[in-house]
Amino acid sequence: MSQHPISAIHLQPQPGVGPALGFESAMYSDVDEQAAALTGWNQSYLQLSGGGFRGAIQRVDLGPVRLFMEGLGSTVYQNGQLQPGVLALGVPLHCDGNSVFCGAPSRRDLLHIFSGHSGFEFRTGNDHVMMGLELDPELTNTLYPWGHGALARNEAGLRATDPQAMESLRQVMLMLFETAHSAPAMFSLPALRAGMVDTLVERVAALNLAATNADSSHDVHWQLVQQTRALVQGQLHQAPTVGALCMELGVSRRTLQNAFQRILGVSPLAYLRAIRLGAVRQALKTASSVTEAATDMGFWHFGHFAKDYQAMFGELPSQTHKRYLLPLQ
């Protein structure tokens, strides 16, 4: 049996070896906690697949350059936006073929650009491991000044690049994570850390970036999903019906169905249910009761609600509520 991507992320240094300077590693069973783990990304995650959430993140901080490795065992719809001037690149390790990044099919051989004025959207599969690289503005400007070259549009998206340069960057990033486990003392030496930064910047500079064009149907479908998300976010407490969304967007039910199936892999109705269930899970962390959290989000049949909640998150709403109440007792 093949190793699951999350299991493939080493979560502890070797026995008897202390943690590396600037190295962090954690597993998560809460999708919102994992979304908040990468500071400066302003992310929100919506869990789309059922069965509970499992995720993991490793981070290596080299000062002007930061690396992360994220594993997901659930299908997640991500939204985020980085600070202006920060260049954030994604180098996939595992891609299950169902991922969609900024409206286009995600692939292991494509570089993922997370930076951009309008933010990024990412529908990941449940066989997902992504390595990421953040460069501070002073380094970004020496490589790809905004307004020049391949990043002129300042938009998130997929980029084709030289396969050898891509693989070289991937291997250097993997070596740095391995070093954090096997020889953490190296990270305490300023000269070695500076050398690591130079090596990473050199590999990024070798990338010959070019925009890959998603086909027009993906473009239209992605826009419909974005517009739907904006409409729903503004009225979570009284989420619109699918029919009302179609009227608001001026499209047929079939068109909206096709857009959601192609971009998120779920129906519009399943998406509405997932976003309301996610909102209830968040509310359960502070609500006085399960009933209060459920009714606030429009759930009135508590038997069906509890069943749907357990199918999505792997536990009953009462168990979630109790867990977050315990520290207060």
Tell me about this structure:
The protein is of the alpha+beta class and 329 residues long. It has 2 domains: 5-211, no CATH class; 216-328, Arc Repressor Mutant, subunit A, CATH 1.10.10.60. The chain is 41% helix and 19% strand. It is built from 12 helices and 13 strands. An 8-stranded antiparallel beta sheet has the order 1-3-4-11-6-9-12-13, sandwiched between helices. A 5-stranded antiparallel beta sheet has the order 2-5-10-7-8. The longest helix is centred in the middle third of the chain and has 20 residues, at 163-182.
Q: Which key terms come to mind for this protein?
A:
329 residues; alpha+beta; Arc Repressor Mutant, subunit A; five-stranded antiparallel beta sheet; globular
* Gyration radius, in Å: 21 Å
- Gross morphology is globular
Tally of DSSP helical segments: 12
Largest sheet: 8 strands, antiparallel
The chain-level mean pLDDT equals 84
Secondary structure: helix percent? 40-55%
Strands in their spatial order, largest beta sheet: 1-3-4-11-6-9-12-13
Gap between N and C termini, in Å? 43 Å
Please provide the count of β strands. Answer: 13
In percent, how much strand structure appears in the residues?
A: 15-25%
Q: What is the H/E string?
A: HEHEEEEEEEEEEHEHHEHHHHHHH
The number of distinct structural domains comes to: 2
Q: SS-based structural class?
A: alpha+beta
Question: Uncertain spans, ≥5 residues at pLDDT below 50?
Answer: 12-18, 146-150
